Structure formats: C-alpha cells, structure tokens
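Protein: Carboxyl-terminal processing protease
Species: Acetoanaerobium noterae
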Amino acid sequence: MKKLRQILTLLFTTMILSTNLAYADPITKDQEFFDAVKEYIMQNYALEVTEDQLYDAAIKGMFDALDPYSTYMDEEEYKAFMEEATGEFAGIGAVVGKRDDGFYLVSINEGSPASKAGLKPMDVLISVNDKAIDLKQDTESLVKQIRGQAGTNVKLIVKRGNEVLTVNIVRAQIQVNPIEYKTLEKDLGYIRITEFNNNTYTNMTTAIQDLKKQGIKKVILDLRGNPGGSLDQVLKVSNYFVPKGKLLEIQYKEDKPDVFYSNGNLQFEKVAVLIDGNTASASEILAGAIQDTNSGTLVGTTTYGKGVVQDLYPLKNGEAIKLTIAKYVLPSGRSINLKGLNPDKKVEYITPTNNSDTDNQLNTAIEFIKQK
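Structure follows.
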C-alpha cells in the first residue's frame, strides 16, 4: 500500500510538472494562470466537463468573493428575478403553500384565472397536467410547473374536503398587488406592503384614497417580512409618509452621490410602522426615513440591515449580472448596513396558540398610536 501511494504521488507530480503549474515556478494568479488551470482540468479530469461549465463556474466564483447581493444569474434565475421585481408573470393567480401532508392553495387573486375556474383557498393539489405531484419537491419547483405562457392551458386536480375536482385553466398575465389594507377602528386604518414591485405605488395610492374616504386619519403601516424591491417605487410611496425634505442619499464608489427628496404629501395625522428581522432594503429606506424625520413610530424588532444598492446588467444571452454599486444613507446621514433599524418600541412577536390569529405586535401598535 505504501508503494502504491508513492507511485500515485509520482504520477500526480509528473502531470503537474508537465503543465504551466509546475511547483518550481513562481505563481501569479492572472489570466495566464487561469488558462493553465483550465487546460490542466480539460486534459486530465477523469469525468465529464465542458469549457462552458468551467467558465460559468469561474464567473460565479468571482461573485462568491463579493457581498451576498451581487450575483451572476443564469437565464432561469434572471427570469424568476424579473417576475418578482416587476410583480408580473404568466400563471393562474394563486399562491401555493406546503404543509406536512402536501401542497395547497393559500390564496386566490380576485379576478384571476384560478378564481374564474372556481378554485378556493385550502384546495389540496393532487396533480398538474396529469402528473402526480411529488411531495418531496419544494414549492418553487411546483410553481414552475403551474406557470407557463399566457394563453396556454394547465390541468389541475385538487381535493376539497372529500371531493376531487378536475379543473382546466387558461393561463394569463398576472399582476401581483403587494398592498393589503383595511379599517381597524373608527379612524384607524391598516396598510401592509409585502414588497416594492412595479405595482406598489399605484395600489398604495388606491388604498390611501379608499381609506381617506372612510374617514381614516391614523394608520398602521406593516412592513414586516418585506424584502424590499424597487428603489423608484419606495421613493414614490415615501412621499405619503415622510415630510418635505431630504429622503435618501446614494453614495457611489467614485461618482457624485444622488440625493432624493420627499415632496411631503403626507396623508395621515399619525403613523406607526411594524418592522421585524425580515424588513429589508427598500422597506428599511421607508421605515428609516419615517424614524429619522419623527413622522412615525417604529414598533417591533430590529430590521435586517441591508444598506446597499444593486445595479442590474442584462446580457445578450438572457443571463444577467446584479452588482452592488453603492451604499445609501438616511436623512440623518446614518447607514444601517449590517446594523438594521432599531424600533422605537421593541416588541417581540409571540406565536399565537389554540388556532388564534392574535397579533401581539399589531395590538401593541394599535394601543400605542391611540395613546399618542
């Protein structure tokens, strides 16, 4: 065995010395070194690999050395990213969830193909296009099977109680409305923003107009779980909540900073903002500007802490580069990157028991805003 190891070591050393990667040579990790490594792999790797695969891995490796928000996206990843960013995709208009016993429909968009076909929340998914659903797959994989080009058909079999239903649906373009709102009390309203996609400002304007017609003067703005999104959209929405003045400054590596201002089109007399550890990026811009200008009170737990801005660079082959190009600071000049926003009133979320829908953070915000 010892002799065999010696032979293998000798063979390995001989192959290395036969390339430009010889031990005796000083190594400079430049293009020449990269080409030599690639050539060595292509000539000696025992399994299957292509040059394209090596180039893809090398490019992605460069982004692995950067922050977690900078990435090289393949065509499928870029498509999924754009669907989320724009809030528009081709599908049936239903949210899919997963439990221990399988996949089910969490909610149905009003007026969507799923709604018109008679699907309801809590319907359990059995098959897609006559293919039984693999319970071991993740939700994203199943959603890809249900989505498709607008105008095409998808056949679903669902279970509702003891009844099994077969539904044929024509897919359509779906616009995601990230705004939920309602009246809580006489003059107190509630608005939740799930993300800042291309539909946020328009739907926020509609929600505010409706609430104002109902006599709402105070509002609770729920940004919990909001991962961020479009800078343009959050700047527009901020005008409704941040007084006139400096709103945001974006600082680049070399270029002059961009400074953005609120026009101060305030809509409510009092505002409380719900935040948590998943409140990130664009939602932190809004919450932070409200806090810095004393135009509202933050309730909940410390936010995520993403104080950087990315640029999206689409490529001709359908792929894309997303690169962090700037940092941002809030009206007070502070950066929240890797630190987050601390709430004015800290309230840890308590998971309700006995199937209760009690939201202790929301209840605290209600009591707090009523006392002010």
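Remarks: The two ends are 81 Å apart (CA to CA).
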